[in-house]
Design a protein that fits this description.
Chain B: InterPro entries: DNA_Rcmb_RecR (IPR000093), Rcmb_RecR (IPR023627), Rcmb_RecR_Znf (IPR015967), TOPRIM_dom (IPR006171), TOPRIM_RecR (IPR034137). The complex is a heterodimer of chains A (390) and B (198). By secondary structure, chain A is an alpha/beta fold. Chain A has 10 helices and 15 strands. Chain A folds into 2 domains: 181 residues, P-loop containing nucleotide triphosphate hydrolases (Rossmann fold), CATH 3.40.50.300; 196 residues, Up-down Bundle (Glutathione S-transferase Yfyf (Class Pi), Chain A, domain 2). In chain A, a hairpin with a 5-residue loop joins strand 5 and strand 6. Chain A is globular, with a radius of gyration of 22 Å. In chain B, the strands form 2 sheets. A 5-stranded mixed beta sheet of chain B has the order 4-3-5-6-7. Chain B is elongated. The chains are: A alpha/beta (390), B alpha/beta (198). Bound molecules: adenosine-5'-triphosphate, magnesium ion and zinc ion.
Chain lengths: 390, 198
């Protein structure tokens, strides 16, 4: 897909902006804090209904305003579509495709982006929750229905944890009996989530290997595996090095049996702590390079290469899945993080996609082949080059 | 913020379920400004409702008398009981005209985060009604969401000891929703296509 027009109203520091875009590379240049990230974030929000910077939606709405609107026209082949999201400071958001209302959570089905951002480093170095979010977000894009499964799981988890906590105080027999009901719900929803993640991990392996080779020109054997709490993985015990990798894709029956057995093993601990200790909310993705974990072992540069490869692999999966063409690649400030060789290689890897949006504070950070005709951003406005005293 | 009693009125309205601050403001100004609005009748009605409305001794539905109109109606089929969460679900099902049996209102659904367990629901009275051998079928019509499902599962387990057919409303109801918001046709179909759990 190619975004041909982007229109913002009261989004972040933009009061109003209209912007024509084209296929291939679109470069945005501006000094720190002017609104480059905000601009591309609007597209990310439209396509994922979330921001990579904050968890709440309110930050998207310009200070002092009630609602932000992001509207885009995009084409794929000779079809043209109009997508719009209105982010309300209070109340639910609204979404439209071709001027008819749709459920906001169906937007990712139409508008697809893959964001590369400095924050991505946390994906390999940070907490497991970030990696779970990464894989689940990808699942939701590929199958919007999956967001309902995730939401239900979260709710069952909350119900079950509350019940476990109150059981510590001693409860009636009737209330004891309701625990097994939540157990069963947790197992069936959790099994679906684990199975889905396992399939995705399997699908992303080869694209990841190819993407890494493209960025690094060396085979460091990048790997991705699931660490499952139902198989004994414990997020609280930081034992990255000797985690058992789970390469085979388990079938649902095996996952379900394992889930049930693990829950049985941890039953006493769960009651003591008033907390659900097994399930996909306690799982992790294990990234590896050269047969060692990335987290805690890989160098800064290697970690970056891994993240870039992971994002490129994601883009490859989305491209394969969609009949809307390629996802729009968004590279926010990433070139500044890379050495010259990797800048060039990344540039090569992304130019194969239909549309790429790139932001940078310094034009010289961008590989020469991508430097053409920048759009300048200053203080929440798109301005002429002349007006910028860089 | 508005002055004194107008703001008080808005605050009271926004405490009601389903009414946000904007609607509360609209209703308040409607009441203040609309000329031929019979405010006295509205106020009296509110007071009378609170004084006179009771809950049916048998099924727990709202009622003006000791027992509700449905429980008193001799034409209703007393061999079949439809279990719902709230009185408003009774009203929704009545609109479909698909069901001629009796109801039982639980008064909610099992939800630990809201502090509601089986003991907080009208389950004992239901078991007592079922002990009467004339009931042959129970339809579980709790909401099609997680808490409604959990409640239905709990009841199903409880009822296995009795010689009674237990059925659940057919799927097709919008999942994750409230029964009362399902349209008549969908809800009617759900009744026809109910599945026997045992
Ligand atoms: N909701 C909002 N309302 C008004 N202004 C906002 C809002 N959210 C962010 N801003 C402003 O936007 C600016 C940041 O913009 P942005 O993050 O896009 O900068 P940038 O051009 O990407 O800079 P850098 O090169 O440092 O990454 C900040 O000055 C911030 O105060
Ligand atoms: Mg930025
Ligand atoms: Zn009654």
């Amino acid at each position: 897909m190619i975004v041909t027009h982007l229109s913002l109203r009261d989004f972040r520091n933009y009061a109003e902006a209209e912007l024509e875009l084209h296929g291939g590379t679109n470069l945005f240049i501006g000094r720190n804090g002017q609104g480059k990230t905000n601009l591309v974030e609007s597209l990310v929000f439209l396509s994922t209904l979330s921001s990579h910077r904050v968890s709440g939606d309110q930050a998207m709405v310009r200070a002092g305003c009630e609602a932000a609107i992001v509207r885009t026209t995009f084409t794929h082949g000779d079809r043209e579509l109009l997508a719009e999201v209105q982010i309300n400071r209070s109340g639910t958001n609204r979404a439209q495709i071709n001027r008819s209302a749709i459920r906001p959570r169906d937007l990712p089905w139409y508008v697809r982006t893959v964001l590369f951002a400095p924050e991505d480093l946390a994906l390999v170095r940070g907490e497991p929750s970030g990696r779970r979010r990464f894989i689940d977000q990808l699942s939701m894009i590929l199958a919007p229905r999956f967001s309902a499964v995730l939401a239900d799981y979260e709710r069952v988890l909350k119900q079950r944890n509350t019940l476990l906590k109150s059981l510590r105080g001693g409860l009636s027999a009737a209330q004891e009996q309701t625990l097994t009901i939540w157990d069963e719900k947790l197992i069936s929803l959790g099994t679906e989530i684990i199975a889905r993640r396992a399939v995705l991990v399997e699908q992303i392996r080869d694209p990841l290997r190819r993407a890494y080779a493209a960025v690094v020109d060396d085979d460091h054997e990048p790997t991705i595996d699931l660490s499952l709490s139902i198989d004994g993985y414990d997020v609280d015990a930081d034992d990255t090095a000797d985690r058992a990798a789970n390469s085979a894709v388990p079938d649902s029956a095996r996952i379900e049996a394992g889930f049930r057995a693990a829950m049985e093993r941890r039953r006493r601990a769960e009651r003591e702590r008033g907390l659900t200790l097994v399930g996909p909310h306690r799982d992790d993705l294990l990234f590896g390079l050269n047969r060692l974990p990335v987290k805690g072992y890989a160098s800064h540069g290697e970690s970056w290469s891994f993240v870039l490869a992971l994002k490129l692999a994601t883009a490859e999966l989305l491209r394969r899945d969609s009949d809307l063409g390629d996802p729009v690649l968004i590279l926010d400030d990433v070139f500044a993080e890379l050495d010259r060789q990797r800048r060039r290689r990344l540039a090569e890897a992304v130019t194969g996609f239909e549309q790429v949006l790139i932001t940078a504070a310094v034009r010289e950070d961008i590989p020469e082949e991508l430097r053409a005709a920048p759009i300048f951003i200053r203080a929440g406005r798109v301005v002429d080059e002349d007006a910028v005293d860089v | 913020m508005y002055e004194g009693i107008v703001q008080d009125l808005i605050d009271e309205f926004s405490r009601l379920p389903g009414i946000g601050p904007k609607s509360a403001q609209r209703i308040a100004f409607h009441i203040v400004q609309t000329e031929n609005l019979d405010v006295t009748r509205l106020a009296e009605l509110l007071a009378t409702v609170r004084e006179n409305i009771k809950f049916c001794r048998i099924c727990g539905n709202v009622s003006e008398q000791e027992t509700c109109g449905i429980c008193r109606d001799p034409r209703r089929d007393s061999t079949i009981i439809c279990v719902v969460e709230e009185s408003k679900d009774v009203a929704a099902i009545e609109r479909t005209r698909e069901f001629r049996g009796l109801y039982h209102v639980l008064g909610g659904a099992i939800s630990p985060i809201d502090g509601i367990g089986p003991d907080d629901l009208s389950i004992q009275p239901l078991m007592q009604r079922l002990a009467d051998a004339s009931v042959t079928e129970v339809i579980l019509a709790t909401d099609p969401n997680l808490e409604g499902e959990a409640t239905a599962t709990y009841l199903t387990r409880l009822l296995t000891t009795l010689e009674i057919r237990v059925s659940r409303l057919a799927s097709g109801l919008p999942v994750g929703g409230d029964l009362e918001y399902a349209d008549e046709v969908t809800l009617g179909r759900a009744f026809e296509g109910r599945t026997t759990l045992r």
